[in-house]
Specification:
The chain is α/β, with parallel strands linked by helices. Helices cover about 50% and strands about 15% of the residues. The chain contains 22 helices and 15 strands. The strands form three sheets. A seven-stranded parallel beta sheet has the order 11-12-10-13-14-9-15. Strands 3-2-6-7-1-8 form a six-stranded parallel beta sheet, with helices on both faces. α5 packs across α6. It is globular and about 65 Å long.
Length: about 550
């Protein structure tokens, strides 16, 4: 059976992929951008479960860093594995640590035991260790439990035969310590997948030597997954070459052929930059590229760096959204419910109705075919039908929000908090809700119809703008990186590797076109302490030199 196993549809069965899937020991995988890391995890799960390598009743544990990644991996595994996928447990690291604390908190010393119904807070200063806990504190409590009770730690290696870790380069020291406590030298196989060239979370405590430590302490076999399935040949060549700059490696062959659609643009000021880039974006759209296939990235402070460009795009009638803060809100269960209701009420979207039904069933922990399914769906459908009739054909923002709240009453805020733990924090619920309400009002104000507003709400018809830290895992036909200047890369001298990785992440989002810009002057860079409006290039000059000399980026003024 093992010899006959083949990957299911969804990935090309290259030799490097099959070597990783068939490897019967712990593996650390250095995977390049666009190489299919998520699909590798789904196919490896399929192999382990179909062939019995993961022997029943043991399970597979997958740990991710973002909620979106955690859900994406789980859905792919279910698609590839069918019912066997029920033995695949997918968590974010934070949710996994929280599950340990919630299950075993009674073994903590009396002064450390949190309240049964504690709130999650997202500012460590607000954490009091009792009824308000931050994820930093939750991680430390989980470690305390596992260190003090080895019998509890052993339960996990008895449960899981295989552990996958996605985006392994982002692993913090305390997270790595937890993995060691649970699985080191206990017979569980580890599959750690990441890209050292995308190490952009060192500022948040990511462990810089995590791959080397893992290879030494878990005795992992090092594998490569580097073939890029996302980008065209020119961009693949640029990325192949730029990796050597990131790794400070002089042993490479510069690109000799002409590289099309990779350019650097120099401007005198933000207004000329905005005028020209907006005109270029309009030409891309006129040529048939959808707005959502165009992304404007900045190193940080997207609202300030892109303000004039976004104003110019808006005057040209080009929809655009800054997703730096919105992205996480829209991925929340509350955000998904809000967005699907907006569509159902305005465009009567059947796919959004289906998603809403799925979320309602998930809330009640009911699967397809369950005897309760029909009752719950009828209950939800009757509520939506009544609300649609009450709203009419031209609902106001206020009436839409009122009727979205009405359905949320049916969902039940307390029930949602029980299903999705983050909503136990009333402050967090309020923060997410305010963002969604303001976003709805903005999209209605910025568009000509409610249908367009509902699409814009989820950035389905808009140019997307964000900080580079938010773009990992995404891809676009056109990537415009705005502001390659010392002031944007203000930590470059002390954190060269992480900053180079950030630019590599930005470049590797592109499938067809890369545009890099700079302007001599940016008005927002002035404060009571200093005036940095004039751009400087002392630190980032080597980046420009490498891109133009070795990657054949064309320079335009």
């Amino acid at each position: 059976m093992i010899e006959q196993w083949q990957p299911s549809e969804g990935i090309e069965s290259t030799q490097e992929l099959m070597d990783i899937i068939f490897c019967d020991q712990s593996v650390s995988v250095l995977a390049g951008a666009g190489a299919g890391k998520t699909e590798l995890l789904a196919q490896k799960s399929n192999y382990l479960l179909q062939t019995g390598k993961c022997i029943w009743p043991k399970r597979i544990l997958c740990l991710s860093y973002k909620k979106e990644a955690q859900e994406n991996i789980k859905s792919r595994v279910m698609k590839r594995c069918g019912q066997r996928g029920e033995r695949f447990d997918s968590y974010t690291f934070d949710a996994f640590c929280k599950s340990i604390v919630d299950r075993f908190k009674d073994v903590l010393p009396e002064g450390k035991i949190p309240s049964n119904n504690y709130d999650l807070v997202f500012n460590h200063k607000m954490s009091n260790g009792k009824d308000k806990l931050s994820f930093d504190l939750i991680r430390s409590l989980a470690l305390y439990i596992l260190k003090s009770r080895t019998d509890i730690a052993d339960l996990f290696s008895l449960t899981y035969s295989h552990v996958f870790i996605d985006e392994f380069q982002d692993t913090r020291s305390d997270q790595y310590e937890l993995i060691k406590l649970l699985f080191k030298d206990k017979g569980t196989q580890l599959l750690a997948v990441g890209d050292i060239n995308q190490s952009i979370m060192l500022w948040a405590g990511a462990k810089k030597t995590v791959f080397e430590d893992c290879e030494r302490e878990f005795n992992t076999t090092k594998k490569l997954l580097v073939q890029n399935f996302r980008a065209n040949k020119d961009i693949q060549e640029v990325l192949r070459c730029f990796i050597h700059f990131v790794q400070n490696d002089d042993n490479f062959t510069p690109i000799s052929k002409s590289i099309n659609n990779c350019t650097i643009h120099f401007y005198d000021n933000e207004f000329s930059e905005a005028d020209d880039i907006a005109a270029k974006i309009k030409r891309f759209i006129d040529s048939g590229i959808e707005e959502k296939e165009i992304c404007v990235l900045v190193k940080q402070q997207s609202e300030k760096y892109t303000g004039k460009l976004r104003d110019k795009l808006t005057t040209k009638g080009i929809r655009n959204l800054d997703l730096s803060e919105l992205q996480d809100v829209l991925k929340e269960p509350l955000g998904r419910i809000f967005a699907t209701l907006f569509k159902v009420y305005t465009s009567r979207s059947s796919s959004s109705y289906t998603e809403l039904c799925d979320l309602y069933l998930k809330l009640h922990r009911v699967t397809s075919g369950d005897e309760k399914e029909e009752i719950l769906i009828k209950e939800l459908s009757d509520k939506i039908a009544a609300n649609r009739e009450a709203l009419g054909d031209a609902p106001s923002p206020d009436s839409l929000i009122t009727h979205i709240k009405d359905v949320l009453t049916l969902f039940g805020v307390k029930k949602m908090a029980g299903r999705w733990n983050q909503y136990k924090s009333t402050d967090y619920w309020g923060k997410v809700w305010r963002s969604l309400e303001l976003h709805l009002r903005y999209t209605i104000d910025a568009t000509h119809s409610l249908n367009e507003a509902a699409l814009m709400f989820q950035a389905e018809n808009s140019v997307q703008v964000m900080n580079v830290h938010k773009c990992k895992g995404l891809e676009y036909k056109v990537v415009i990186f705005l502001g390659l200047e010392d002031q944007a890369f203000w930590t470059y001298r002390n954190e060269k590797f992480e900053n180079d990785c950030a630019l590599y992440v930005a470049l590797s989002r592109a499938k067809e076109t890369i545009i890099i810009t700079t302007t001599k002057y940016r008005e927002h860079r002035v404060s009571n302490w200093r005036d940095d409006r004039a751009s400087t290039y002392k630190n980032v000059a080597p980046i420009y030199s490498f891109l133009m000399k070795n990657c054949n980026f064309k320079q335009e003024k």
